[in-house]
Each structure stands twice: as C-alpha cells, then as structure tokens.
Specification:
This protein has 195 residues and is of the alpha+beta class. The protein has a domain at 58-192. The protein has four helices and eight strands; from the N terminus they run H-E-E-H-H-E-E-H-E-E-E-E. It has helices at 3-24, 82-95, 99-103, 140-154, and strands spanning 58-64, 70-77, 115-122, 125-131, 161-166, 169-170, 172-173, 179-180. The strands form three sheets. Strands 3-4-5-6 form a four-stranded mixed beta sheet. Strands 1-2 form a two-stranded antiparallel sheet. A hairpin with a 2-residue loop joins strand 5 (161-166) and strand 6. Helix 2 (82-95) runs antiparallel to helix 4. The relative contact order is 0.13.
C-alpha cells in the first residue's frame, strides 16, 4: 500500500464524520422568520469537582503487582530540583514497598543490597548506575527492576529518559530480554505495566 493510498484510506472516515457533523449543525430552511423565546438556563449544571490533591507533586513509584506487572503507586511529595527528586525516588525504590503496599501484595524486583544511584543529569536524561549482586540481565527480575527504575524516574516531569549503567558501563535489559546500551524511555518498558 502506497503512502497516498494509506492517506486516502485514513481520510475517508474523517470526511464522512465531518459531513455528518456539518449536516447536523445546519440551519433549517424556513420561509418566514420565527421568534425564539428565551429560556432560563442554570449557570452551573453540576456541583464543582473537588480536585484530589493528596498525591499532587508526589513521586510515582512502580512496584510489582501479584500478576507480575508493574503498578504505579503515589508517594509523598518530593522536594527540591530534579537531582534531589531523582535521588529521593531512587531511595524510595531501593527501600521497597511500605507496609500498606505490602498488604496489597506489592513487591519490588530490586533485591536488597543492590545499589541504584544517580551518577548525573544531562538535560532531561538521568544516568543511573547499578552496583552489587543482582539476578543477572537475563532474568525476569532484571527486566522488572530495569522497568521500575525507568518508569519511576520518567514520572518526574523533568526526566524524559534514563541511561542505566552496571558498574559504570552502559547496560540495561529491555522487556524482551535484549540488552541495550541506549537511554530508555517509559515507552520502552510500557509492556511491563499492568493494564
């Protein structure tokens, strides 16, 4: 299928919808003017929504659910600039789930004793080094741990990507088990998130 054919196939439904909308909005054809009587309308049709500010400004950690998929969890607001927010989020990740989260069946794929530390920030990219005993790059735990770090850090508005290094060398595990030396975004690990 050529690009022109694809555009035509995609444009056809849009043109049909546009025609229907325009036909529905037309002014009826009348032979003489008709008076329109004013109707009182309420200024507010429903009660105003009360915004939920309980998690506003908080960091979003990703923990492992009982189905083996990652689940976002809101935590207390982080403070400071991007560096401070990243360090706080990594500290919360390595600490693992709190008591309430454990009661909900949430766990972490980041094993105790594994060091996950911010090396530096370059623009909107966080470079994070992982040191210590880990399960190895070919395991499900390594894929989940990688995704936990990437998703948690990219939930910080000023972080778009994460370059993971192991003992100073770029290396991360993609959801399919492949190793990469490239920075990762939340889209790279989205397959591991609970739907």
């Amino acid at each position: 299928m050529t690009a022109r054919t694809r555009r035509a196939v995609l444009a056809a439904p849009l043109l049909s919808v546009t025609a229907v909308v325009l036909a529905a909005c037309s002014i009826p054809n009348m032979s003489s003017p008709v008076a329109i009587t004013p109707v009182a309308t309420p200024t507010r049709t429903t009660a105003p929504a009360t915004p939920d500010l309980s998690g506003a400004g908080g960091s979003e950690l990703y923990l492992v659910g009982s189905d083996g998929k990652l689940v976002p969890v809101r935590r207390a607001p982080t403070s400071g600039g991007t560096k401070s927010q990243v360090e706080q989020a990594l500290g919360q990740l390595t600490a693992g789930p709190d008591g309430d989260e454990q009661a909900r069946g949430l766990t972490s794929a980041i094993p105790p004793g594994l060091s996950v530390m911010l090396v530096r920030l370059i623009g909107s990219q966080a470079i994070v080094d992982i040191k210590g005993t880990d399960p190895g790059p070919a395991t499900e735990e390594a894929r989940l741990a990688t995704a936990q770090v990437v998703l948690t850090l990219t939930s910080i508005p000023t972080v778009d990507s994460v370059l993971l290094t192991r003992n100073g060398r770029p290396q991360a595990v993609l959801p399919d088990g492949e190793l990469t030396q490239l920075p990762m975004t939340k889209e790279d690990v989205a397959a591991l998130v609970q739907q």
